[in-house]
C-alpha cells in the first residue's frame, strides 16, 4: 500500500491496482501539485463537505465517488459525477469493496455542510479505514490498513472500536487544533489506536492551524504512544508494508 500526502487532508492511496484520492484540496502550501498533475484515481473519497476537503473534487469526476448518500447526490447534481460511473453512497459502519481495497466508513466528531453552506446537509462527517483485506473479527497479521481520521476531535470509538477491531497499522490524524484535535488529543488517539505509523495532517495550512511539530512529538511521548512519527513533506510517498 502506498500513501502519498498532498498537504492538508489530501491523500492518494494505492492498494494493489486500485487508486483512491481522499479529500482533494490542492490550494494548500504543502503541495506543489495542481489537480491536473495527479494520476486519475479510480475512487474519490470525501470525509465531509467543507471547502478545504472538496474544493477540487469536480476535477476528478470520472472517478467513482465514495461518501455519504447526501454528499454523493450533491456531487452528482453539481460537480459532474455521473450516475453511471457511480456514486457509491455509504454510511457510518459500512464497508464497501473498491477494487482491490476495502473501505470502512466511521464517524468523525466535527460539523458539516457542503461547500461551507450550512443550509445544505452533507450527512454525518466521517473518516475512512482502508485495508487490502476485508475486516472481520479475526485478526489478520498480513493485512495493511490505513485510517484517515477526517476532521475530528478525540472520540472513544478510537479506543473501543477502530483500534481493537479495525486494527489500523497507520493513521493520518489531524493535529492543527482550533477546528480539530490538537497535538495532545491527537497523541492520545495515536496511543488508543495502537499504531505502528503516525502521520500528522490538517496543520500549517492557514494561521489558525499553525503548530509546532515538536509539541506533537512531546505529546506522543507523554501519551506513551508506540508508533513511529512520520512528518511527511508535501507530495511525499510512504510505502506501508
Automatic annotation (TrEMBL):
Residues 7-202 form the Metallo-beta-lactamase domain. Coiled coil: none annotated. It comes from the Archaea. One of its GO terms (molecular function) is hydrolase activity. Pfam families: Lactamase_B_3. The keyword Hydrolase applies. The keyword Transmembrane helix does not apply. Keywords: Hydrolase. Belongs to the UPF0173 family. NCBIfam families: PRK00685.1 (NF001911). PANTHER family: UPF0173 METAL-DEPENDENT HYDROLASE MJ1163, UPF0173 METAL-DEPENDENT HYDROLASE MJ1163-RELATED. This is UPF0173 metal-dependent hydrolase SAMN04487950_2600. It comes from Halogranum rubrum.
Amino acid at each position: 500500500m502506498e500513501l502519498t500526502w498532498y498537504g492538508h487532508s489530501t491523500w492518494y492511496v494505492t492498494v494493489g491496482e486500485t487508486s483512491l484520492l481522499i479529500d482533494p484540496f490542492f490550494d494548500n502550501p504543502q503541495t506543489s501539485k495542481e489537480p491536473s498533475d495527479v494520476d486519475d484515481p479510480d475512487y474519490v473519497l470525501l470525509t465531509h463537505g467543507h471547502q478545504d476537503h472538496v474544493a477540487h473534487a469536480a476535477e476528478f469526476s470520472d472517478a467513482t465517488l465514495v461518501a455519504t448518500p447526501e454528499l454523493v447526490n450533491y456531487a452528482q447534481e453539481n460537480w459532474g459525477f455521473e450516475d453511471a460511473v457511480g456514486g457509491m453512497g455509504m454510511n457510518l459502519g459500512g464497508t464497501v469493496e473498491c477494487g482491490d481495497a476495502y473501505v470502512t466508513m466511521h464517524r468523525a466528531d466535527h460539523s458539516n455542510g457542503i461547500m461551507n453552506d450550512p443550509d445544505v446537509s452533507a450527512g454525518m462527517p466521517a473518516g475512512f479505514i482502508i485495508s487490502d483485506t476485508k475486516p472481520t473479527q479475526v485478526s489478520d497479521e498480513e493485512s495493511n490498513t490505513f485510517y484517515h481520521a477526517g476532521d475530528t476531535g478525540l472520540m472513544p470509538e478510537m479506543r473501543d472500536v477502530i483500534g481493537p477491531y479495525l486494527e489500523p497499522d497507520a493513521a493520518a490524524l489531524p493535529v492543527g487544533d482550533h477546528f480539530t484535535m490538537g497535538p495532545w488529543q491527537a497523541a492520545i488517539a495515536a496511543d488508543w489506536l495502537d499504531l505502528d505509523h503516525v502521520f500528522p495532517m490538517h496543520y500549517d495550512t492557514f494561521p489558525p492551524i499553525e503548530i509546532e511539530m515538536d509539541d506533537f512529538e512531546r505529546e506522543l511521548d507523554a501519551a506513551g504512544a508506540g508508533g513511529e512519527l512520520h512528518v511527511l513533506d508535501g507530495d511525499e510517498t510512504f510505502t506501508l508494508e
